[in-house]
Amino acid sequence: MEEGVVNEILQGPLKDIFDSKQLITNVSGSGNNWAVGYKVFGSQYQDQIVEKLRQTAEHCDCLQCFFIIHSMGGGTGSGLGTFILNVLEDEFPEVYRFVTSVFPSGEDDVITSPYNSVLAMKELNEHADCVLPIENESLFDIVSKINQMVTSGKPGTTVKPESLVTLNEGGIKKKLQEKPFDTMNNIVGNLLLNLTSSARFEGSLNMDLNEITMNLVPFPQLHYLVSSLTPLCTLADVNIPPRRLDQMFSDAFSKDHQLIQADPKHSLYLACALLVRGNVQISDLRRNIERLKSSLHFVSWNQEGWKTSLCSVPPVGHSHSLLALANNTCIKPTFIELKKRFTRLYKKKAHLHHYLQVDGMEESCFTEAVSSLSSLIESYNELDVTKGLPVHDPLRLNIVI
C-alpha cells in the first residue's frame, strides 16, 4: 500500500508491465499489523478493489484463476492479501484462487510476523484453493548457490550484465552479496512463469491450472503444494552448461531445489505434478517417473498419483526446465515452527494491544487462528502415521458369466 514502493516500480525497468490505472495505494502501509491490513484497509478499499477486479476480468476470454502473490510476515501482504482472497471468493466463486505465500524466516526483522502469519494462515485454510508456500530462507539459500557459481569463475558461468534480476545498483556482485531481494523475487516470478506456461505456449500434453487443484488436492484443507525448480540457475540469468535431462528430474526431488526448507523425498506424497518445458518426450517423463518411484513414499490409496504436463517452449536460453509441485507432508515442520513462534509471543500477550485497538479485532481472532493451524498440523500427523504401511492391491470386481 505504500505509495513510494509502487512509484519505485513505475519508474523502474518493469514499468510497462503494469497498468497504472489498476494500482491501489495509500500514503503508508499497515505498520506490520495484520488487523490494519485486513480490518482497516480491507473495508476502506473493498469497493475500489472489486471495481478494478471486475474491469480486468471483463477483458478475459477464458478466466481460469486468480493469483495472489503476498508475503505473510508484514501487515499489508498478510492482512489485505487475505482480505482480497475473501473478496474473490464472494465475487467470483467459480474461479480458482491460487496463492503464492512468502513465509518469514526465523531471523525475520518483523517482531510481529508470527501473529500476522498465523492470522493469515486461517484465511488461507478456509478460502484458498491452492497455496504455494515459499520461504525467504530457501530463496536466500538458492541465491547463495547462484552467487557461488558466479564467483567461482568456472568456465561458462557468467551473469548477464544488464540483467533485470540484479539491476545495476553498485554492481552485480555487491547486489548478490547484500540484500538480493530482486533475485529472490525473480525466483517466485519464474515459478509463476513455469506454472502458466501451458496457458501461453503449445505443447503435446498441456495442463490447465484448474487441473492442478483437481489432481493434487485430495482434501479441501490439504491444499499446500511444495514447489521445486530446476535448473536453478535459470532464475538469476546465469549461463551455465545445461543439466542432463535425467539429472534434472533427480534434482527436482532433492531438498536443495525446494522453495521451502523441506525434504519431500523422506516424507509422504499425496500427489505430485511435473510440469516440463522444452524438447522432452512423453517417454522421457515415463522413464523418469518409473526410475524415481521406488525411492518416493506415496499414500497407499494413491500410488499412481502423478500428473504431468509437457510444454514445447523452454525458458529463454535453456533447452529444458522442470517445475515439480508436491502435495507432501514435508510442509508440516514449517507450520509447527510457525506455531512455536506464535506461542512464544502469545504466552506473554506481547504486542497484542496493537491489534486489539483496531476496530473489529478481538482476542478470539488469535485463538481461532492458532486452533485452525493446529487442526491442519493434526491432519498431516494422521497421514504421516500411515507412512510405511503395506500397500494392498485394490479389490477387483469378479464378474460371473
From TrEMBL:
Boundaries of every Tubulin/FtsZ 2-layer sandwich domain copy: 205-340
Superkingdom to which the source organism belongs: Eukaryota
PROSITE patterns xref list: TUBULIN (PS00227)
Keyword check for Glycoprotein: no
Ranges where the Tubulin/FtsZ GTPase domain occurs: 1-203
MF term (GO), any: GTP binding
Record keywords: Cytoplasm, Cytoskeleton, GTP-binding, Microtubule, Nucleotide-binding
CDD domains recorded: epsilon_tubulin (cd02190)
SUPFAM superfamilies in alphabetical order: Tubulin C-terminal domain-like (SSF55307), Tubulin nucleotide-binding domain-like (SSF52490)
Any one GO biological process: microtubule-based process
Subcellular location: Cytoplasm, Cytoskeleton, Microtubule organizing center, Centrosome
Family assignment from sequence similarity: Belongs to the tubulin family.
Subunit structure: Found in a complex with TEDC1, TEDC2, TUBE1 and TUBD1.
Protein name, UniProt field: Tubulin epsilon chain
